[in-house]
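Work package 3, deliverable 3.1, input record:
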Amino acid sequence: MGIPLQTTPNPKIQPMTWLIGGSLAIILLAAVAQTAAGAYDMTWRQAWNALTDGHVWRQPAMLARLLLGEAFAKTLGIRDTEPLATPTLIVWNVRVPRVLTGILVGVNLAFSGSIFQAVTRNELASPFLLGVSSGAGLAVVLVLILFPAWGPAIPFIAMLGGGLAFLLVYLIAWNRGTSPVRLVLGGVIVGAVAGSFQTALFFVARDINVIQNALAWTVGSLTGADWRQVRLIAPWSVLVVVLAISAARYLDVLLLGDSTARALGMTVERTRFLLAVVAIAAAGSAVAVSGLVGFVGLIVPHIVRMLVGSAHRHLLIGCLFAGPALMVSADAFARLIAKPVQIPVGIVTGLIGGVFFLFLMRRRREVGRP
Amino acid sequence: MNPAKPTADAKGIHGQVLRLRYDPKQSLVIDEQSLSIEDGKVSALIGPNGSGKSTLLRALARQLLPDSGSVILDGRDIATLPTRELARNLGMLFQEHIAPGDLTVEQLVYHGRFPHRRLFDSLTEEDNAAVEGALRMANIAEVRQRQLGELSGGQKQLAWIAMALAQSPRYLLLDEPTTFLDLAHQFDVMDLIRRLNRELGKTIVLVMHDLNLAARYVDYLFAMRSGKIVASGTPAEVLTTDTLRRVFDVETRIIHDDPLQSMFCIPVGRAGRSADK
């Protein structure tokens, strides 16, 4: 499916190979650093031994308990397993899930950004610009501060918040159909309002711990991510990746403009809406586990597009690797740069994103041209 | 099949008492106009800027829904046709094209197969054949791997026509396909349109400005002014000094050129200020 390659070799294959290879190398490097270093320091060899510990790999029951969760494993009747050595325990209970969460968040944000950039036909679009992240963020802060008992439902609440925000954006933008510019303007409005409410909520909160927690969350952080986070986001990541890659052709045709897309037989508004739902699910589930990590959804599609072009089958496959590479390396940096203090990863991505965009605007004059 | 009111002449596109506007708050661009596009012919809408040519063309392709009136395509009301099915019968190209600069000609033409493929469908032999046919017909097979951004305006236009051709529609609606092109490419495009009509039997509707190209390449003309069709017929019937004065407010001289079997309209000045008499 998608773009035919049978006539001549595709010139994008070469950059794609480099992109995937480079991304995998970065992910691996960052993952190893993440695994070895931290409050409980190990040598790389120790970390490697813990990662490959036969007590984990040779016991399907052990793996199942880690991946599925203690409670669920029990209901499945998976037997108890022998206790693990401390390094193994730390690596497998704390560090591996954090890396995995980073990978999945990276995938989701990059995919969300790619989809939003196509449906709004605006290379500067992202879940942030369209108010989706702010909506999800407001919903989560609301829960953290006012309804802490609803904590377990946070992913759904985040998606709901993101979804509501986007619906609002759509309503604002709607005028016998939508246009990319109106959508972005609507996003800015909703984002500003949601952001204000979110800040206001901090003044309502009494408990300083809650405020700190919520604050870390609005910056975006993977601190404390464990297998629960992996389980929360993984199904959404799989769903989003499968749906988006199968809809690559639809995203491509949307880039030809609404009129042409319609002339080609697309029901433009419905397609745009459904794709936006996929992007919201991606962003909402990412926000639910990592908070508001900025710029990943914006810059990853940009970098990938510069390397492999704008055809979405290539773009999305590139994002599948580049998104995690940025997220995991930024998180490793955030966690280890000021040891023992952990900086929220959102600060690092914000820095990288800001600098990257400056570079982009200076180098490519067409950025921001109508 | 659920045929909407069968019309006397089922084949072709029939716009019936169309009232068109872009915004309910604005006044009508087209007020109760009807026209019939004959099957198997090349037709063109001509008229001054703002006369409603493009608006009417958009309505025929369901790009603009009429306030009232209907468009009947091969005996069926297009308002009731599924979008995909409409796109398999009727292709439309607009005045301005949007596409990523790095899109290749071949990728663009493959997008023409969109209405023939479902979400998870992979490319079929039929898809490949339609794309090959379109590339060859438009004479752009050699530049298939080039990016749109590197092509000349004329080649770009041919690539877009090839995309619409890959749709395999019976009807092709083109909004000012030659307007921004140099002379040689204007002929490339018009020659392609003629071949699509003669060799593949496509019915073609154009909006165009160049009366001399229209005289040479078009079978049937609709002349519009202020949202009304004020004259229609063969070029010989429509391109008269009288009609052109009414439509364009210009004085023209009509010259018949026998070797080309065509006629030429030479504008000599604005009507009413005739310097020439």
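Residues 92 and 260 of chain B are 30 Å apart (CA to CA).
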